[in-house]
Automatic annotation (TrEMBL):
Keywords: Ligase. This is Acyl-CoA synthetase (AMP-forming)/AMP-acid ligase II-like protein. Pfam families: AMP-binding. GO terms for molecular function: ligase activity. SUPFAM superfamilies: Acetyl-CoA synthetase-like. Residues 38-296 form the AMP-dependent synthetase/ligase domain. Coiled coil: none annotated. InterPro entries: AMP-dep_synth/lig_dom (IPR000873), ANL_N_sf (IPR042099). Residues 1-27 are annotated as: Disordered.
Length: 427
């Protein structure tokens, strides 16, 4: 997995047409998701990158499109040119408040390539919570939908901008783009990007939000995201050209890592289903080709009844702590569990000798190639260390490291029974 990130760095530098070779001792620049997309587009331009949910027109007013890696890079490069035309200061926080559609993935990489800091915001948040997020991250621009079912996210964010003056630009994909909002469909038509240079910019990282009552922004750089993603790819055994069908929104570690990040790091295809529809999902899972399903853990009983596991290469059940692990069916082949601890870290394991209940019971077993280490604090809380947990809280735009001897304590402890973790609970 780390080799994929290294390949992306080579493509973003020495392999670019006309680029000067980097000095032998030059430190590697932080690269993000755009570099991963570009690396695959260079080698496999006709491979499918993104597939929209078939019934997308019914709830978004936009066509369902199948995107190759080359086409995705072209459109993302045009969006990048449009964002640069706003002349925001470098590394400006730019919100991305969208459902998991292809346009959202392209916009995320465009923000990154334009030299800004993507801030991933759930599109389901109400106006009060959006205002809190904008203030906490000090957003200067935001990208969203004009329409999402009966909802009008762009209108809601215009009201947020009226209450938070530093938020200067609201941009949206149509239809129903309000007056005063930048129409991104027109941006794509009017701008000509540079696909050959796409992915070469230094990534500022990305921001997700934690906190039950008040959203708190958490900063993670590209290397930390890659490390967390590698932890998921290893047990899931996702290979280039495979297909990932995700039911989770890419707005936090829970949805971003096993979805978009896993697809780009492995060279797989991502098919997102932001609006659950059983008929659409059944049709997607019935298509030929090695397929991996990413689903919330609570869906396991229903999916077991439907008998979909036999048709899939793997199912990744994602659990947000606190969670009870004793209700899972043990020993099911092809099942991977991912337990997410706020926006700090995640632990992934196949349901075999590396099951998450065993890994968490003996934290020293979870030292995955140095990417993540876990220990139990004297008060029983779990703490994390390593590249996969390298995240820092942002306070008024300043990253604040809250580690103790490089360990990041969580707010969770575990319940053990006969040497197996049966639950993860708040300490």
């Amino acid at each position: 997995m780390v080799a994929a990130q290294q390949a992306a760095r080579r493509d973003a530098g020495a392999l670019r047409p006309g680029a000067e070779p980097e000095p032998a001792r030059a430190p590697a620049r932080p690269l993000g998701l755009a570099a991963l997309l570009a690396a695959t587009a260079d080698r496999h331009p006709d491979r499918i990158a993104f597939v929209d949910q078939p019934d997308k027109p019914a709830w978004s007013g936009r066509p369902a499109i199948t995107w190759t890696f080359a086409a995705a890079r072209e459109i993302a490069a045009r969006l990048t040119a449009g964002l640069r035309a706003l002349r925001l200061p470098p590394r400006s926080p730019v919100g991305l408040c969208m459902a998991g559609v292809a346009e959202s993935h392209l916009a995320l990489m465009a923000i990154e390539q334009a030299g800004h800091l993507p801030c991933l915001i759930p599109v389901t948040w109400d106006e009060a919570r959006l205002l809190q997020a904008a203030e906490a991250a000090q957003l200067q621009a935001v990208i969203t939908h004009g329409q999402l079912g009966a909802d009008r996210p762009a209108e809601r964010l215009c009201r947020v901008a009226a209450r938070y003056f530093p938020l200067r630009f609201v941009a949206a994909f149509g239809p129903h783009v309000p007056d005063g909002v930048i129409g991104l469909d027109r941006v794509v038509l009017d701008h000509r990007g540079d696909p050959a240079a796409f992915g070469s910019a230094e990534a500022a990282g990305l921001v997700t939000f934690t906190g039950e009552e008040t959203p708190r922004p958490v900063l993670r750089d590209g290397d930390a995201l890659t490390a967390a993603t590698a932890l998921c790819l290893a047990p899931a055994r996702i290979e280039p050209g495979d297909r990932i069908v995700s039911l989770l929104p890419p707005t936090d570690l829970r949805g971003l890592v096993p979805g978009l990040a896993a697809a780009l790091l492995s060279g797989a295809t991502l098919e997102s289903h932001p609006v659950f529809d059983s008929v659409s999902l059944s049709a997607a899972l019935a298509r030929e080709g090695p397929t991996h399903l990413v689903a919330p853990g609570w869906m396991e009983p229903g999916l077991a009844q439907a008998g979909v596991a036999a048709r899939l290469r793997s199912i990744l059940f994602v659990h947000r702590a606190p969670v009870r692990l004793s209700a899972r069916t043990p020993g099911r082949p092809g099942i991977v569990d991912i337990v997410v601890f706020d926006e700090t870290a995640l632990v992934a394991g196949r349901r075999d000798a590396n099951d998450v209940a065993l890994l968490l019971a003996s934290p020293e077993r979870a030292a995955s190639g140095g990417l993540l280490r876990i220990r139990r604090e004297p008060d029983g809380r779990l703490a994390f260390r390593g590249p996969a947990s390298a995240a820092r809280l942002l306070h008024r735009g300043i990253a604040r490291d809250e580690t103790v001897d490089d360990w990041r304590p969580s707010r969770f402890s575990t319940t053990l029974l006969a040497g197996v973790v049966t639950a993860v609970a708040e300490a």
